[in-house]
Amino acid sequence: MKIVTWNINGIKARLNGLTTYLKETSPDVVCLQEIKSMDAGFPREAIEEIGYTVVTHGQKGFNGVAIIAKSDIEDIIIGLPGDDSDVQARYLEATVINGGGAVRIASLFLPNGNPIDTEKFPYKLSWMDRLEAHARELLNGEMPTILAGDYNVIPQPVDAKRPDVWTGDALFQPKSRAAFRRLVNLGWTDYLRTCHPDTPEYTFWDYQAGAWQKDNGIRIDHLLLSPQAVDVAQSAGVDRFTRGWEKPSDHVPVWVELALS
DNA sequence: ATGGTGGTTCAACCA
After folding, report:
1. For chain A, which ranges sit under pLDDT 50?
2. Which strand B bases fall within 7 angstroms of a protein CB?
3. Whole-model pTM?
4. Would you say the C-beta of A10 is within 7 Å of strand B?
């Protein structure tokens, strides 16, 4: 069972890329971020036509997350629990049934947090606090669980080609990194890093200044696995090839393979 | 080097 997370930076601009990716790699589940579409405007038919169920949590213009799967999607939670006043569409959680098993999967788009001297940075940190509280609750469940998404956090210096230029950025601030570490320390596994301890594994390259050509990337899209998910995990990787496509997203898909029938 | 690129929506915001 292949589970993917991918910030597509706009579903309208990326529909061809997404359907090509689905046909070429045949993933069982894809968690999408930055669909930049309302639910009604999401091109669900084009994705259903190639065999996927579609659940979206969108808003006008910005943000927006979705989960698409080859099988049924059940027990859907829309929005990150903990603050009913937060109207930004950044979190969607559901159960995906797969043969003999079920996996609990979240698609999350963590706030960017820049510039750090504005209200955007405390919003990021409070959102991470809420995620930590909810992630603690999720560990009490019995199901394999994956928190997948664009975390907008560079966990370690190895996760950036040029860590020095990110020191003032919300993605690499000590408070952002500490909050990510607290999450992991609850008992979640950054499975891609576990599988590939010695290589950068970048997932994002800026559109500007030839970042892709220079491989000036960062690793900010993550799959955090509960212990029950780690027990059945087999491999993980980054599908870098989509970054070289015509009209690419600035992020690429990150995947994990689980041994569920 | 205080720019550079891209998506959504339509002047400005977000990343």
Report:
1. none
2. 4-9, 13-15
3. 0.97
4. yes
